[in-house]
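The following block was generated as part of the benchmark described in Methods. Ligand: zinc ion.
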Amino acid sequence: MKSPQYGHPVHAEVATGYGPCRLCLQTFRTGTDERLLFTYQPFTDPAALPAPGPVFIHRARCERYDGPELPPALRPLPLALEGYGADGVLLVQRRVSASPFEAVLESVFERADVQYAHLRNAEAGCFIARLDRR
Ligand SMILES: [Zn+2]
């Protein structure tokens, strides 16, 4: 019950919002699902500027999502994509709104210098997932 990177105490609560869960990438059932809140640093590149922020995961065991497609539960959410280059330099930001997610992702990876992308909640700013080139 401590943040794996910072050691801060984890906060447990019944979900008051949809999330999503950072591990399985499914949304929470508000008022039903128990969830854990802790600080997470999403950059694995040691040269990147740290950007710690809050993430939620299910309190009960769930499976890590590692699929090649956007989970359907995330499609209705306000999403943003950020493309990062070498040393974690932010190169491009795009909101996923009118365009399909795949078209926006393609436009981010169109830049040859983008090495990976982060998916964020466009309203809360929370980190959701990292996307790597195939
Ligand atoms: Zn989960």
